[in-house]
Amino acid sequence: MSISPPSSDRSDVTQIVVVMVGLPARGKSLIAGKVKRYLRWTSVKAEVFNVGKYRRTDNPHPDAKFFDVNNPEGEKARKAAAEAAVADMLKWFQDKDNKVAILDATNSTKSRRKWIHDKIMEANLLHLFVESKCDDEELIMSNILEVKTSSPDYIGQDPEAAAKDFRDRIRNYEKVYQTIDESEKQLTYVKIINIGARVVINLIQDYLQSRLVYYLTNLHIKPRSIWLSRHGESEFNLEGKIGGDANLSERGERYAKLLPELVKRSGLPKDAPLTIWTSTLKRTSQTAQHLQKELGWEKLQWKALDELDSGVCDGMTYQEIAEKYPEDFQARDDDKYNYRYRGGESYRDVVIRLEPIIMELERSENIIIITHQAIVRCIFAYFMEIPQEKSPWMEVPLHTLMKLTPKAYGTEVERFKADIPAVSTWRPKGSTAKHHDSISEGMPESVVGEPSKVGIQKATNVNEKAMGEVPTIEMVGLPLP
Ligand SMILES: *[C@@H]1O[C@H](CO)[C@@H](O)[C@H](O)[C@H]1NC(C)=O
Ligand SMILES: CC(=O)N[C@H]1CO[C@H](CO)[C@@H](O)[C@@H]1O
């Protein structure tokens, strides 16, 4: 049996409270959400405790007056919300498997930071204050525009009025705001100024703290997208074989030729550079070659983007694996995330080797990644917060381009499907090992060929709220001109 233990032992990880500090519209909730998502992706149990959410229970649509420091009613309600959030958080830490709580509140004064610091020390937890400080008006305005259109506080309200109210709310906080300074050098903190333009780090002691700081200092909020695609259909795909380093099939070649058009149709940022990342395997380079030639983008090859290593099963069909290693076949169905191929890798192993890719992706702007099924699943799971028991089973069809656009309250996904048939390599849990050599979507061969005749289908959905659900998407026809 080849069920592997988790390859990195994280039981030694201490329990940490990450306390967000900063004025509204400085991206605190965005950072809090991302930290949670990143940690969960690496199997660290994390939760966000959002003071605003507790406060919202009683005051669903407060106006700026509510946030006035001179309004005792509002002050009382905010204090009660913070206390409720902290109480819930401390209860959550009683389960020693829970590792990182992210307290998302304003905590804009020294005395408030002292209050929370004392609470954390009392409970024997580590802490990390994360201040997002920003005086770049343009950054703040673009953040307000995002928030006012998507914040639960402003659902169903006039956007202009919402933006004005939000600016007033910020002014009320500005009156009392105190940035973290030298007088607080007993605190462990990272201060991120103008979203990474400058960073101040103080008193990091723990391994997980330093990993968090590294992650946080790589983040930026410039608008950008990430395109994700599997390679075009390969010779091995046609034969139902896994692994290997095969060439593209003739249909895979057609996908490679269509890809520049598909990417253009998905909406390219104006004048923004784009970089192509592929694995070191031929089928991804071949898929990227027309993109590189026609659009002149730089291309980088990453070993870390190579397909999940199937060890002794490399080059076999699922049917052959089921016959030769029936126990393994069953074990993989039972726990696909943790199952490690003999002499190969598990999904858990892949996530660990993809961590540098995620760090690099966070630092980067527009990237198009041409990679493999298991790798697409892991990267997609990071952005969409797909849980480990679901991500390895996600259907990632060939000849489909995904465009992921990070937004303040989630990641927007659009799919562009090239109507070039390909075999389906998807094997649902518990199914037989039979190779699906039927042509997907039943597209008649006759419409396929010249790129100008090839349809592109587009579908959009926004996730992150729908956590735990693998997004299912309806395709909408969008023919090329
Ligand atoms: C892949 O394609 C190259 C170039 O067209 C060819 O030389 C090579 O033999 C092919 N490899 C296989 C395994 O078919
Ligand atoms: C833990 C915590 O939330 N501390 C302070 C954060 O800010 C609120 C008000 O916004 C204070 O009431 C809390 O004491």
TrEMBL record:
GO terms for molecular function: 6-phosphofructo-2-kinase activity; ATP binding; fructose-2,6-bisphosphate 2-phosphatase activity. It is an enzyme of class 3 (hydrolase). Residues 427-449 are annotated as: Disordered. The active site is at H231 (tele-phosphohistidine intermediate), E307 (proton donor/acceptor). Its EC number is 3.1.3.46. Pfam families: 6PF2K, His_Phos_1. One of its GO terms (cellular component) is cytosol. SUPFAM superfamilies: P-loop containing nucleoside triphosphate hydrolases (SSF52540), Phosphoglycerate mutase-like (SSF53254). One of its GO terms (biological process) is fructose metabolic process. Substrate binds at R230, H231, G232, E233, S234, E235, F236, N237, R283. Residues 11-223 form the 6-phosphofructo-2-kinase domain. The keyword ATP-binding applies. The keyword Transport does not apply. Keywords: ATP-binding, Hydrolase, Nucleotide-binding. It comes from the Eukaryota. In the C-terminal section; belongs to the phosphoglycerate mutase family. PANTHER family: 6-PHOSPHOFRUCTO 2-KINASE_FRUCTOSE 2,6-BISPHOSPHATASE LONG FORM, 6-PHOSPHOFRUCTO-2-KINASE/FRUCTOSE-2,6-BISPHOSPHATASE. This is fructose-2,6-bisphosphate 2-phosphatase. The lineage of its organism: Eukaryota, Fungi, Dikarya, Ascomycota, Pezizomycotina.
